[in-house]
Amino acid sequence: MFNSYQLSNQLSPLFIKSLSGFFIVCLLLSFNAAAAGKFNAQKRYLYVQPGQSVFSIVKVLYPNHKDQWSQIIKKVVKINPHAFVGADAVKIRVGERIELPAVSSITKPKATNKQVVLKEMHAVGQVIKQRGKTFVISRKNKTHNIEVGSEIFVGDRVFTGVNGFIRLNMIDDAKIDLRCNSEMVIEDYQLLRGGNRSVIYLIKGSVKKITGTIGKMAEDIYEMRTPLATVGVRGTEYAIRVLQQHGCDGSLDVNSKGLFVKVKRGAIDVKSKKDKVELKKDEAAHLADENSQLENIEVNEGVFDTVEIEEKKSYFFGSLLWLILLTPLIYVARKQFINEK
Prior knowledge:
Number of strands: 19
Strand content: 25-35%
Number of helices: 5
């Protein structure tokens, strides 16, 4: 039989080994937990889903590194060439497996409250033309009328009435014409070193845009979103009409409440839930609803712009003026002709 002293002598090495193993396992688990707690501490992967863009992916997965979004997007494009057409950040392939890079050496900028306020209040555009009823609701839900010289900010929801019209000059020298009965939100608009961003949501109505600096570089994020489809561009001029069946301010009614888009210069990509097409100069497309296919169409005058009737009016009044001026001469000539007889 073993006495207590012999039992303790034989159990001590086994106990010490077990206890040491336990501590090692706990230590490893704590390291793994710490690594898992940091989302970007290791490489991660995902499959691109319909409707996703590289900007929306980075925005969701790297919420605490907003100041580095442009660099992260460039990195994603660089390490996933198979997932982007022509290394274009806007042209991401649905269904592709992409690698998400780790974010290291993050240094959060020390910003005071004053700096934050200034950043939020930085204007991204200015009204250079205006007519009719136009107003804006700010991100703080404050409503005010728009006039020439008014500034537009990120988060502003811009409205135009039946005869309303505004032209915006944006910080990248882009021009945006928002026509009658329209509603548009400036979701994001920034000039950044290494990657600019322009994200606009046309809720309804008609808009014509001449792009500026943003959209000309591969790393730029450019999206003109609508409830039915998203437009991506590369230095161009185009027009969109969405969810506006009845014409206003000189435009004509159309037989669909869907999306009409036409390229006037350059090229655009139109991506819907079901389809994606590229449109070039003078080409147009129509999307009946979010479950339909995009169709190439011919569009008539008045779908995107005001029907030109002013010239006919001027011809009428010009002819009337000439008739009034020539009437005395005709009367004198007629009277002289009668006297000669």
